[in-house]
Design goal:
Elements: H1 3-15, H2 27-48, H3 52-89, E1 98-102, H4 110-114, E2 121-126, H5 138-148, E3 154-158, E4 171-177, H6 186-199, E5 200-210, H7 214-223, E6 227-233, E7 248-253
Parallel strand pairs: 1-2, 1-4, 2-3, 4-5
Antiparallel strand pairs: 5-7, 6-7
Helix pairs in contact: 1-3, 2-3, 6-7
C-alpha cells in the first residue's frame, strides 16, 4: 500500500462519524428547498398558461435553489467532516495536548480531535442553542462522545465563548468551527477572539473555521500580536450553498 493510500485511509477513518451531528442552522436548507419548490410550482403553472419563456425562467430558479439546498446539506452532513479531518491531521498533534473547542455544538470537531488525543483532553464549551444546530444539547454531545468511544477524554461546559470559564494559558490548541459568526456584534466577536488568545498557552495555536467574518478574526489576531497568522479558503466541500457562503480557515500562534 502506498504512503498516499495510507494517508487517504487515515483521513477517511477520522472523517467517518458514528454519532449524530444534526444540521447546522437547520432552518436554512428547509427555507432554500421550500423556495425551490415554490418556483417549480409557479414554473409548471406558468407553462400550462403557454408562457414558455417565463416558465423556463421559474424552473431554472427552482433548480438553482434546490441545488443550493443540496450543497448546504452535503456540507453539514459530509463535507465539513472531511475537511476538518484533513485540518486536524495536518496539525501534527502528539496526542497529549489539552484542546478547547469554542462553540462545540454536538461535537462534530470536538470528538474528532478527541480521537487524536489518547493521553490528552478535548474540552468543549457551548450555549447549546438549537437555532444554531438542530437538537443541540449537552446530553446529545455526551451521547455522541460515547458512540465515538472518546467519552473518557472529553469534558463539556456550558458557557459563553465571549467569557470562557477557564484560566489563562490553559490549552495547547483552541479550535472553533462555525460558532463565532453567530455573535451579532463586532465587539462580541472580538471578545471571543480575545478569549481564545487568553486561554491558549504561549506557543499554542488557534484554528478557526467560519463563514462571513473570517477576515475580521485575522485582523484581530494580528492586532493582538499573534504570530504566523494565515487566512485561506477550504474549498467546495465547505460551501454552505455555494461559493458566496464559503468557509475559510484562520490560524495563528501565540508568542
Amino acid at each position: 500500500m502506498s504512503a498516499e493510500q495510507v494517508v487517504s485511509d487515515s483521513l477517511d477513518s477520522l472523517a467517518r462519524r458514528r454519532g449524530d451531528y444534526g444540521f447546522d442552522a437547520p432552518y436554512v436548507p428547509i427555507i432554500l428547498a421550500a423556495i425551490g419548490l415554490i418556483f417549480a410550482a409557479i414554473g409548471i403553472l406558468t407553462l400550462l398558461t403557454g408562457d414558455v419563456v417565463a416558465a423556463v425562467v421559474f424552473l431554472l430558479y427552482a433548480v438553482l435553489m434546490l441545488l443550493i439546498s443540496a450543497c448546504y446539506v452535503y456540507t453539514t452532513r459530509v463535507g465539513k467532516f472531511q475537511v476538518w479531518a484533513m485540518i486536524l491531521s495536518q496539525l501534527g498533534l502528539r496526542g497529549d495536548e489539552q484542546v478547547l473547542d469554542m462553540g462545540c455544538g454536538r461535537g462534530a470537531v470536538l470528538l474528532m480531535v478527541a480521537q487524536l488525543l489518547p493521553q490528552g483532553k478535548a474540552v468543549g464549551v457551548d450555549l447549546w442553542r438549537s437555532v444554531d444546530q438542530s437538537g443541540n444539547a449537552l446530553a446529545i454531545t455526551e451521547q455522541n462522545a460515547e458512540r465515538e468511544g472518546v467519552a473518557d477524554r472529553v469534558e463539556l461546559h456550558t458557557g459563553d465563548i465571549r467569557k470562557l470559564p477557564f484560566a489563562d494559558n490553559s490549552f495547547d490548541l483552541v479550535l472553533s468551527s462555525l460558532a463565532i459568526h453567530n455573535i451579532h456584534e463586532k465587539a462580541g466577536r472580538d471578545a471571543a477572539i480575545d478569549e481564545a488568545i487568553r486561554v491558549v498557552k504561549p506557543g499554542g495555536r488557534i484554528v478557526i473555521a467560519d463563514i462571513n467574518r473570517a477576515k475580521q478574526y485575522e485582523q484581530r489576531l494580528r492586532e493582538r500580536g499573534m504570530l504566523d497568522v494565515t487566512l485561506r479558503g477550504l474549498g467546495w466541500r465547505f460551501w454552505y450553498g455555494g461559493p458566496w457562503v464559503a468557509t475559510r480557515l484562520v490560524t495563528a500562534r501565540k508568542p
